[in-house]
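Aim 2 progress update. The chain analyzed this quarter is reproduced below.
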Amino acid sequence: MMKILLCPNVLRDTDLAVTKQVETMLAQYGAETVLCPLSDGGENELCTITQQAKNAHMVITFGGDGTILKTARAVAEYEVPIIAVNLGDMGFMAELEPEEINGIRQVLDGEYKIVRRIMLDVALKRNGETIFEDFALNDIVIKGINKVITLELFGDDNAISSFTGDGAVIATPTGSTAYSMSAGGPIVEPDASNIIITPICPHVLTAKSFVLAPERVVRVVLDGRKVNTTVLIVDGQDVTAFKEGDELVVKVSERQARFISLSNRSFYKKVYEKLGERK
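Predicted structure tokens:
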């Protein structure tokens, strides 16, 4: 029997109306469903998803891109494929809109493909010891709080850039259409394997985005000339202090996120539909 996790954001699907429609559909196919609701709550929700993901065949999310990110991180260890129903404002990462949920029947009939997305491992080192570790599907943000900071960035110990500004975004191709793009970074096809580094509001004309090969190891350090309150934010969720003398190390992870794709709609068309000018 196929086991499928249903992960609705209860702030988006408030009465679980869409989730229940899909649950009824899955029951007709004889699938076992496990409801794992998400809200703005804490770790217990994600622990439940991770525990249930050990022997799950698929995860269906109901919400926006934030819901997808939370779920993808929770099931990454088991590489359970995800299909997302968009109930958010943008839903760039979602495969289906609410009116398209019958497309899930296509998945149950085996008519789909799996696409893989790289993730990034991040480690924060202080006095030679690793004090924080995590991984990201979208991006890692280093940001000054209310004041500018000076960052030095390296790739394989070679200097990439040094600038003063609001911070920097280190993104995957999946995250290239999020904060990185808003900060002026390039849009990269999500099935690529590059690391994208984009300065945030740099106070120098020559600070530009860099697209690095997947084998590069990125290091970021705070320059002592501008040591202001700085934080490290992983996928918009985990926040930790980034202090003078700390070293951030980022590299492509062995983990990969797996998403279910149903259509032949090109990435470029999706970019235009979601991010193009509205008439």
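The chain has two domains: 3-112+262-275, 119-254. The chain has a mean pLDDT of 90. These observations will guide the mutagenesis experiments scheduled for the next reporting period.
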